[in-house]
Fold this protein.
Amino acid sequence: MVEVRLEKVTKKFGRVIAVNKVDLVFEDGKFTVLLGPSGSGKSTLLYLVAGIYRPTSGKIFFDDKDVTNLPPRERNVGLVFQNYALYPHMTVYDNIAFPLRLRKEPPEKIDSKVHEVAKLLRIEELLDRFPSQLSGGQQQRVALARALVKEPSVLLLDEPLSNLDALLRLTIRAELKKLQQKLGITAIHVTHDQAEAMSMADKIAVIDQGTLQQVGTPEEVYLKPRNLFVATFIGNPPANTLTGSVQTVDGTVFVEVGSARYQLTEEVSKIVREAGVEKLVVAFRPEHAKIVESPLVDPEGDLVLEGDVYVVEPLGRENIVTLIVAGMPIKVVTPPDVKPHSSSKVYIVVPRNRVMLFDVETGLNIEFLIREIHQKIPD
């Protein structure tokens, strides 16, 4: 297994910059997910690692070996595509054996390896069938077996679950994660499905418009998004955002959102004053808010918003309540027994430690801005 390292990697197609100066490390033996919307550059990044594309500039390393200009066959990678790409005229056995036959491996070794990987993926009884005789889940396992049979240093997965139905995706993604852990292989998985990324990844690399937005554990990118894009792309429903104006009253700095005033901490207040910031985006996750029927004066400084109930969506184990706050739709996840009446006026309480603040101009999380300032200050 290897560590994959990208240094200032850029890929252009004509005037289009598909990947822009990406520095990224895929750790040895870890499951990393490249997450982003369609057209964000995540598949291009995967194909650069595979060797299908060569970077316009920058370097790619497998451990300390520079593989930037090496073709795919010299990188020892296993690649699983979205459409599985199985040969329809070949049996399952022959599809799996194909990479080993290209290497001119002895027939005895090929047979042993095919049966070994088929047993691992529980498809031994399918070896005599053709792809047309298989379900989507079975085809996915065959494609995985073909990628794994040559014992790749890196397993590359290009949205392999997107053609499966929702229930089967849940099953397969758990099996795939368990398989990766069992083999200890370095895996890079491309998806636009943030739930898939959150459930499978050791680390998530969020990418948009060819630019890396944030790299971190699922918990980090969810609870501490680096910018507004990450906050609103990850989560279902995504983070709520409200733009408020910065006001100072008797030396205390607030953000005014509708009729609410949210007091800023000393550290944030200092940055806001020094930068002359006039507006901030106040954000919070729908499940971090609580709906109450009477106004609160909270001594802890929590965010308290007034809103009108627009609609309640019952989902069985929870409800999603949409409210109108300061003219904007806001979603709150509530327990199944909390069903406020439509058009009723309620109050939303968000604990201070769950409130996120973002700069309107750059979209950057103020907490990250503070962190960057501290890093620049010498000890």
Remarks:
- The two ends are 38 Å apart (CA to CA).
- The chain has a mean pLDDT of 91.
- Residues 4-233 form a domain with the Rossmann fold fold (CATH 3.40.50.300).
